[in-house]
Amino acid sequence: MNTTRLGALAHEDPSLHALAERLLALAEAGLPAMYLPDAETFVFTRAGVVSPEGTPVLEDRGTSTRYAAITALGARFLPEDRQRALFGGRTAEEFTGVLVERLPGVTNLGDAALVAWAAAETGHPKLADALDRVAALDVPGRPQYTVEAAWVLSALAAARTAVDMEERLAAARVRLLAARVGDSPLFPHATEPGLVPGYRSHVACFADQTYPLQALARLHASGDDPQALAAADACAARICELQGDGGQWWWHYDARDGSLVEGYPVYSVHQHAMAPTALFDLAEAGGTDFGPAIRRGLRWMTDVPELADPTGNPREPMIREDFGVTWRKVYRGDPKKAVRAARGLTTRVAPRARLAPLDRIFRPGAVDRECRPYEFGWMLFAWLGGPQR
What we know:
alpha+beta
């Protein structure tokens, strides 16, 4: 197990190191309950509900190929016996093999890219087959969602030492870099027009930033690419500049000018996993070290200003060992995401407009009581991973 990141955290802030260890233990304890042995996959989500008897329980809903692949990506850093505890007796590589065998039936590019990325990272012998499926789904000239385009680039970068991927890697690199609008450091929601309605085509989410900056950093780490590293660094610098006073990683941005559209909801996975793994990968590739921002974000998991009562104590914890979950997000509770819609429409014609009265009317304080496997998968990836070769 690589504990470089945890070791650094122990040096910088022992209390946060204890929090990270607590979260990692929770991930290992919670993932087996999310695994469906008969289907050999993971649930889409576990949602907190109230049983007919009035007891709080967790309800499994759906299944997810991409969440299964992300879990394999993170779990591969565990010792083999602890991997088997998560995958019904299989190692992360063996479980990835199950996902690879199912690829002919996978029609989503993002799902296929994540499976191929897991195959590359675990050294699976059918990596070439996985990459062929990605190629079949990634039609040249077709617009793609930015997150999925970033996963394609990460998969190809991970595979480049095992399979000749240079031509496809170059195309994936150009697509991601060219997706940016003008000189904005942020990435849009899609690589080209056609996938997002015009009225909200300028709105990009946090995932649209972290996955591209991670992919570009890992591309540079796999082979010298200063332009890719600079783009990743600029994106990271902007989202860190906009980070909330309580360490919040905000949700929606204007991809045209790098401004904030709407902060809420704040997702736990952004705080404890997605931001750390992207920013760690950036620093370890030779980019800027945004360690203080990582630590501020992690601390939000226990010091949640949105849930503090008048005395400063939390009304409800986001970390629930008793259920084996971290609650998914804190949000406004506004009907039909009214604040997000209003700000999205307004900023289309008036960039940086805030509509401040909405913050007073719809205060964030609602909790989304569900948890998804990828939240724990990326947590393992973030804190147990280490420098790229």
